[in-house]
Amino acid sequence: QSPKSTLKDMPFKFGASVSAELLRTNSSYKALVIKEYSSLTAENAMKFWALHPLENTYNWKDADEIVALAQANGKRMHGHTLNWYEVPEWVTNFSGDTQAWENLLKTHIQTVVTHFKGKVSSWDVVNEAIDENGGYKNTIWVQKLGTDYIARAFQYAHQADPSALLFYNDYGHDYNPVKRTAILNLVNGLKQRGIPIHGIGLQLHTRYNQPDEDITSAITSAAATGLLVHISELDMTVNPQSDANLTFTATLAEQQAAKYKFIVKTYYAIPKAQQFGITTWNVTDGDSWIPGTYSRPDWPLPFDANYKRKPAYQGILDGVK
Ligand code: G3I
Predict the structure, then answer these.
(1) Is the full-model pTM beyond 0.90?
(2) Which ligand 1 atom is the nearest neighbour of the CA of 171?
(3) Cα 68 to ligand 1 centre (Å)
């Protein structure tokens, strides 16, 4: 790849999750987002608690700003996420009967999908419904509506926008075979029932020393469903042991680059028609969710905190050579 290459030159969509606030306030961040990516996901702005903070209040501002940036720059906009266990307090405290809960589920999904129709071309309909031991997470949605609410969530989204591509999104495909199998059983079951599901999102919050065979299992088993495959939240900790004194050495940078290259190479080997794309979670090491969440130094992304390309960036480009 010549030096002028950007991630937009990749043979499949390459995206990032973005923050509306950083796009508003940080010109270096905004410039990098415009220059490098062909797809955007809102890191938080399209979540239930962000869009629908009170029962009769929708807050479109941040999400609309991200959508407008995507449209102005010819980028795809992927919606995250119509249904998840993270809900605002009014939902947690909602005291309706089963029919009222079903209406709550349907109304949120259809109001949101309708608002973004024609601008958001794909959705994470349900996010993280399967737990570590392969069962369903005991979320408020399962408690109130039973596990088959998942199928109905996809149907509600499809009714609101028949052209939108609908995904089931989760994490752990690389390091938890029990959970991976349960996820695949869920999506294959939905597909076989004729539920309108089009894709599977592998978050792939992975680590620099995750064995290659785990990465291969995650990606190829997802492709075996025949659905679109989105690596939807890719980042790569180089400090899984949470060493407070770790420094980002050249060796770690090269190891990270090699693993990014392997992930991209493996993804590029699945059938072309299933290559929905790769999205990193956040843009630079400076805005990654990982250091703050785990209270540790970490350098998970292809750009450093000064918006400079790291060896991982070249590793990504090399993955499709
Ligand atoms: O903006 C509010 C602020 O108004 C409020 O005062 C404050 C206190 O509650 O919260 C702020 O919201 C925070 C939000 O990030 C925006 O900064 C939430 O506390 C915080 O929990 C939220 O964290 C996000 C997390 O999802 C939970 O929604 C992270 O930024 C985001 O990177 C992370 O992303 C998730 C994906 O959606 C799903 N897969 C895993 C991934 C990493 O956890």
Answers:
(1) yes
(2) 39
(3) 22
